[in-house]
């Protein structure tokens, strides 16, 4: 076995993903290494969520394989995989009353043994995650009474508390206001760079993608994909083709931005 | 005073009432309530709905039908239990697959499926009773509306409760995560297929044991977990042990009331739990609709 510290966090080898018979990727070869921040962009229905779930081992790829630290995803036990790879799902809701802190502590689940209680260390990790998303004062609130944006931040805190090397997030900013979009993504990117983790973000906003990601994977439809460094991939013509809409690029003080024409 | 007297004079009538009627009935009431409570808590996780209850979802009805069928066929105790278990399991699987449909969970669909299934089992039970010899008609109420008057010392029930409780307590951290949905649980490292199968089996087993012991008693599985959640026991590591104690205690109290309210006549305890449970269920339904809006 190769050195685990150098092994790629995620590697797709000839991975074909389909949804209801429609290809999302065709023989995708992709390597995600520690410290990288990837964004996945594509039109509605291009299969971004499906691809993210496949990368997380929550559904099987049609062909090819996906490895985490050089081991096929499907040979892991669920618990072992959840210690290495965490996912933020879209619009998570709880049917039962549960406090914000309890929700975040559920991120520690893969690190606990059967019928073990969270230790003071787990609670400290959860509280730190809560302060990263600015929810420390709401820790005892029932999650069902929070706003959509607050619930999303609590879910992000739970993912941070899971403390995995690879974090896959499905539209993490869909319910967030302008300030929190920047603040949360900034915090996530900083946290991952500092601790050698990797991020994969499914995003709708190309300007956020250009600002925070260093690598991009574009789903152009019908299994056609394009990936590479953000500066190479996020080009006006390519993005126009991606969304099927004319764009105007503007240079600003905080970088390049695109406006729909 | 009377109890103390009875315990000291083992041959008296009072002693016989105590040991041969009261004690088995008390034990049966507690164990039945505990089984129903745990079955309710498990089904609520499985269906991600605080309104799930073995009686409301028709699972108890399935178990009643299975038990009655075995009884009329002249089967022994083991076959009776097995048949009740099969009935409960079929019911659970039916509710689960039909209510799921193509999309995600939907309270209306779930409850509708359960209610229709319960009505269906009720009709089947009535049919069996109508076809059965007259002397067996006496126990009719027992299978349609639970009753503890004929209860015997709950040997199988206690053993079953212990097995169900130990496994459920062992599963409880996973139950916390399963309440968030299967995809969510898988992402948090739960072996979802294994846990789901176990919940199915444990829920059906607990219901079947409760039904063969005391007939079709409703709403304990709904009320006990709900009261505990209101009291702050949201974590299944607390909720599961607590629901055993509270479910048992609730049914014990309900049975004591059903014996004494219109004494010397007795009410079937199922009537009493329904009288308490139905308004509570309606209140919960009303509140869940408000949350959806």
Low-confidence stretches of chain B: none
Beta strands of chain A, count: 12
E-strand count of chain B: 0
Structural class of chain B: mainly alpha
CATH topology of chain B: ABC transporter involved in vitamin B12 uptake, BtuC
Task: Find the CATH superfamily of chain A.
Answer: P-loop containing nucleotide triphosphate hydrolases
The residue ranges of chain A in which pLDDT falls below 50 over 5 or more consecutive positions are none
How much is the radius of gyration of chain A in Å?
Answer: 18 Å
Task: Tell me the CATH architecture of chain A.
Answer: 3-Layer(aba) Sandwich
Summed over residues and divided by their number, the pLDDT of chain A gives a mean of: 93
Q: What is the rounded Rg of chain B? A: 19 Å
Report how far apart the termini of chain A are. Answer: 52 Å
What is the count of structural domains of chain A? 1
CATH class category name of chain B: Mainly Alpha
**Strand count, sense and closure of the main sheet of chain A?**
6 strands, mixed
Strand order, largest beta sheet of chain A: 6-7-8-3-9-10
Oligomer: heterodimer
The H/E string of chain A reads: EEEHEEHEHHHEHEHEEHHEE
Net shape of chain B: globular
Query: Helical proportion of chain A?
Result: 25-40%
Descriptive labels:
heterodimer, A: 261 residues, alpha/beta, Rossmann fold, 9 helices, 12 strands, 33% helix, B: 293 residues, mainly alpha, 0% strand, globular
Describe this structure in words.
The complex is a heterodimer of chains A (261) and B (293). Chain A is 33% helix and 28% strand. Chain A is built from nine helices and twelve strands. Chain A has helices spanning 48-55, 78-84, 100-105, 120-132, 148-162, 178-194, 206-212, 230-233, 236-243; strands spanning 10-19, 22-32, 37-42, 63-68, 71-72, 85-88, 166-170, 198-202, 215-221, 224-229, 247-252, 255-260. Chain A has a six-stranded mixed β-sheet with strand order 6-7-8-3-9-10, sandwiched between helices. In chain A, strands 2-1-4-5 form a four-stranded antiparallel β-sheet, with helices on one face. In chain A, helix 4 packs across helix 5 (148-162). The radius of gyration of chain A is 18 Å and the shape is globular. The N and C termini of chain A lie far apart (52 Å). Chain B is an all-alpha fold and 293 residues long. Helices cover 76% and strands 0% of the residues of chain B. The termini of chain B are far apart. The relative contact order of chain B is 0.18. At the A-B interface, helix 2 of A face helix 7 and helix 8 of B.
